[in-house]
Amino acid sequence: MKFCKNAYDFITKKIKLSILWVVRVLFAPCHFDVPLYKRIYYAIFGGFMPDQVALYNLNNNNKKEYLSEFDWYKSRYINGDYSFILNNKLVCADLLKQYIRVPETICIKKKGVIYSSLYNINDYTGILYILGVKKSLYIKPINVGKGLGVNKISVDNNNIYLDSNVITEKDLISFLDNKDNYFISECINQSQFLNKIYDKTSNTIRLITIRNPKTNNCEVLYAVQRIGTKETIPVDNGSKGGLVANIDIETGILSSAKSIQKIVDFENHPDSGNPIKGTKIENWEELKNIFVNLMDNFPYLYFVAWDILITDEGPVVIEANTSSGVNIIQLWGGQRNGKLGNFYRYHRIIK
Description:
The structure is a single chain. The chain is an alpha+beta fold. The chain folds into 3 domains: 65 residues, no CATH class; 173 residues, 2-Layer Sandwich (D-amino Acid Aminotransferase, Chain A, domain 1); 82 residues, no CATH class. Helix content is 32%, strand content 22%. It has 12 helices and 13 strands. Strands 2-1-7-3-4-5-6 form a 7-stranded antiparallel beta sheet. A 6-stranded antiparallel beta sheet has the order 11-10-9-8-12-13, with helices on both faces. Helix 1 runs antiparallel to helix 4. It is globular, with a radius of gyration of 21 Å.
């Protein structure tokens, strides 16, 4: 029976990866002018999506220095059977809240039914009441990443806002009624330090921790500061057009910010005009230690990509992910032969 299960899992995994290669690599959207023949070549001989051909300047750089989009998809299996813990935002939040602050889940809507374990909410009237009390809430899909399907609802001066648009109470109820399989969570106020960079979006750190294969100790491998723009409100995701600044692991100092959808480099924020490059993350050493110790509580996990919002009271985990897109960590150079590549190699993600 075990052999049959292993064979089934192996075949299922291969089928899923094949489908992902076609949909998310070969026919991936392209934000750059990459000729069709190059798109096909790099998709077949390397697993690169067309944007990566431009972002990594593969016309001049060696593709063997870079991890590809397909490598990323394969890396989602590193945590094995325990990946589901991180893939389901609700399960993950329930697990993590024993150790660190996570946004409070107000309610869930699944199969058309609204549930709440903390509040007496079972209809849209209850959601409107909580919105009036909390002033701002996030609507998020349960099993979707990259900031897709995320909306912010807020109340200010008796106006209701969906992201940055004024809507009526009836419009909001209709919007909520037409969606399913989502949850509503509290809106966390980020630190003044982050507001000084850009205050219209929640600007999260993507911090990658791994379990070192040689020592079995947890360590911080890579970190970037994600920063939203007026085009991405209310989220900061690079896949939505947000900016990414590299964080020096030793010092916590930010580089200039780049984009994964265009070739740009910003020392100051394009909308606020405030400095990005040279800014230092507050309490950086303490932050690293918190998340190394946090991962230590889960010995069955080998890789976690944390989405962290710094507040004036300390870090809040917005999400924890079983893998991390490689674009945001390779804008400053390929990682295939670096620590991340070696980690992937140990887990047989790449050769």
